[in-house]
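2024-03-11 09:14:02 DEBUG pipeline.ingest accepted 1 chain
2024-03-11 09:14:02 DEBUG pipeline.ingest length=82
2024-03-11 09:14:03 DEBUG pipeline.predict start
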Amino acid sequence: GGYSNPDVDALIAESKLTLDFEKRRTINQKLHSIIADENPYTFLWTLTNYAGVQKKVRKVEIHPYKFFSFADEWFIPEAEQK
């Protein structure tokens, strides 16, 4: 066995089915609160990502666990392309 909590399972399922951003945020905050209180796991280390991006590149988002997930959305405005 591993970590098990029916409330957490229900919140995860509800979050997956909710399209409303604010409602999903509220659900995920509740989910985080429960998991943080129960502390079912302990991180022994965290990953730090560094990225250098030219200022002209737009829509860049660097996430700690999704390295280049949104790279397909990055662009350089036509006026700034050489």
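2024-03-11 09:14:41 DEBUG pipeline.report Residues 6-38 form one domain.
2024-03-11 09:14:41 DEBUG pipeline.predict end
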